[in-house]
What we know:
Elements: E1 9-19, H1 21-28, E2 33-37, E3 40-45, E4 48-53, E5 57-61, H2 65-76, E6 79-95, E7 102-104, E8 107-110, H3 115-144, H4 146-155, H5 162-181, H6 191-194, H7 199-208, H8 211-261
Parallel strand pairs: 6-8
Antiparallel strand pairs: 1-5, 1-6, 2-3, 3-4, 4-5, 7-8
Amino acid sequence: MTITFTTNDVEVSLLGNTIRLDLLNEQISKIYFVKRYRDVLSISTPKGQMYIFDYGVAISWGIIDNKKSQLLNMVQEHVSETNLQKDTERFHFKITENASVSMIDDTITLPDNKTMTLLAASHALAQSAKLGRFEVMAERTIKDNAYLSQTLAKTGKIPLSRKKLSMLRGALFSTKSDILLHFNLLDTPEFFWEYPEQEQKYLTVSKYLDLKPRVELLTMKLATINELHEMLAAEQNHKHSSFLEWIIIILIAVEIVMFLVD
């Protein structure tokens, strides 16, 4: 399918954690032509194209702002764990007949304006947006807990109660689990198993967006979070052991006193 556009803008919107595509499909197919490609809903409008990814990302190609807002409002009704603050990124695109796909200075050059070409590029853009969210989560977690290792290095202990340590461990585990649960989203999409001829277009855009090195760096950050989690676990076990030792000492002392009294 060939698409016509009113602008040359590509807007990437990270809307939330997940999007219920089945319910959205039922609603939006009454107005526009819609087709499902595994984890993506392709929405064709008279002047532009939008792709909705079930992991919370929407990519719009060449759609004017008021029409785009209308579509996103419909999509938003089916988003779970909506982002409190709108997270968007804009790129530009141009169609150059028979050219190879390329991306320079945030401008994507495409050989045609067919649905599959746009979808191939959209996969990379959507993954980059989701990866960006994971990067922020990991960086914030490491930064917020950096004082723990510094304090441990200076004093040899972490001045927190066992309850507080448990809460911190829970927060670290939650962040790590949330990222790992969706980590497979950053692999090459299964879409390209069915359409291998489109994969090179995806790889070109993903290379410009540094997806592979960013994923590797995220893996290292996850390892750091895991080390923080293990450090807190060790400290909590130490505090628990110390608590038990004091109980034993007190019981022995009480028993000695009772023996002397008798």
